[in-house]
Amino acid sequence: MPRLIVQTLRDPELALGLLILVALILIAVLGPLLWRVDPLAVSVLDSLAPPSLQHPMGTDDVGRDVFARFIWGAQVSMSVALTVTLVGTVIGGLLGLLAGLTGGWVDAVLSRIMDAVLAFPPLILAMAVAIGLGAGMVSAMIGVVLAAIPWYFRLLRGEVMRLRGLMYVESARALGATNMRLIRLHILPQTLSTVLVQASSVFSFSIITMAALGFVGLGIQPPVPEWGTMITEGLAYALTGQWWLGVFPGLGIFALAVAGNVIADRMRDLYDPRSGMRG
To answer: Does residue 279 belong to any structural domain of this protein?
Structure first.
């Protein structure tokens, strides 16, 4: 963490990514306290009102405040992406640790399963799961998690296989250390930075994929505000001048995805032993 702080002070792109991420988190957390407008409140008389002081992001076709819905959408998108990232990290990481330490038929079976999952494009896999389980937040999250698990598996498996061949790990095993002790003392501490970088990338992937599922009607269902669904609702008015319906949620997705990717790239440069920025 101290190295990340130092790198942030030296790297304007990393600082900008963190600033965008913190700003969106503050909007999601403090927005409902500062902007006390019901995102589900309908006011037909105020429908399709352009951005103004009363409605900073305008209103939609039934008079709902777009800014209030944007705030709620930020909460939904980030909480779902964080949940998907954590669940994928735990499941994929544990399977990767198991395969890397055990080897043999366990490694072979798990690797073949992960290869089969990776054969499908991530978005197509998430859509197929959402269709099979029924459109909704839970099914969409399951689809995104399944698409992310093989990434963690391959990453952790490779790291564990590399680390278990090092001299100090072999020495600890020769002295009677159990697999759990090896993981706790010698393997996990060496892989945390790698997992953190991967988690940053998966967070951005989750944001974009959940928005894509919402855009095609397979994600979070109305009336719950979600940025992808809001863009879909705004498409009907894109050619009639009501640009704010789709632009603002689109900017939210873009900003959050860019922030996550920039942070992941810079953290990879920071923690990759082969990177010239390491230090």
So the answer is: no
Number of structural domains the chain divides into: 1
59: three-class secondary structure by DSSP: strand
State the helix-helix crossing angle for 227-235 and 244-271, rounded to 10 degrees: 140
Distance of CA 97 to the CA centre of its chain: 22
Q: Is residue 214 part of a domain?
A: yes
- CA separation for the pair 75, 113 (Å, rounded): 34
* Entry pTM: 0.82
149 found inside a domain: yes
Q: What does the pLDDT profile of the chain (279 residues) look like in tens digits?
A: 555 555 555 677 778 888 998 999 999 999 989 898 889 888 888 889 999 999 999 999 889 999 999 999 999 888 888 999 999 999 998 898 888 888 888 889 999 999 999 888 888 998 999 889 888 888 989 999 999 999 999 888 888 888 777 777 667 767 776 667 777 777 777 777 788 888 888 888 888 898 888 888 888 888 888 888 888 888 888 888 889 999 999 999 999 888 888 888 777 777 655 444 444
Give the domain range for residue 259: 2-39+56-271
- What long-range pairs does 182-188 form, CB within 8 A, spacing at least 24? 182/101, 183/97, 183/101, 187/97, 187/101, 187/159, 187/160, 187/163
CA distance 94 to 151: 12
CATH code, domain with 22: 1.10.3720.10
Q: Residues 6 or more apart from 133 whose CB is under 8 A from it?
A: 139, 142, 143
Tell the residue number behind the tokens 């009363």, with chain if given: 54
Contact residues for 117 (Cβ-Cβ < 8 A; gap 6+): 125, 146, 147, 149, 150
| Domain-embedded: residue 45 | no
